[in-house]
Specification:
Elements: E1 5-6, E2 13-14, E3 17-18, H1 28-32, E4 35-37, E5 44-46, H2 54-76
Antiparallel strand pairs: 1-2, 3-4, 4-5
């Protein structure tokens, strides 16, 4: 069980719930970035730092595309 934290959006003291799946990271991304959701206002943020994950999500997406785009290109052009 996670401890109560202050939500960065609504400032309520809540026990955030882990996010299981997102469009940008599937099932793995939210676990890597400790992505949680406030049950009061549904804002999503980093459960460890309490800060938004926007920058980390952008880096995750760019790195994932950089790694898998050449692989997909190679498979499609064989």
């Amino acid at each position: 069980m996670q401890p109560e934290v202050a939500c960065p959006k609504c400032q309520a003291q809540v026990t955030p719930s882990p996010v299981g799946f997102t469009w940008w990271g599937g099932a793995l991304g939210p676990r890597m970035l400790h992505h949680v959701e406030c049950p009061a206002c549904h804002a999503r943020f980093n459960g460890r730092s309490g800060l938004p994950n926007d920058r980390a999500i952008a880096i995750y997406v760019v790195v994932t595309l950089a790694v898998f785009s050449p692989l997909i290109y190679w498979v499609l052009t064989r």
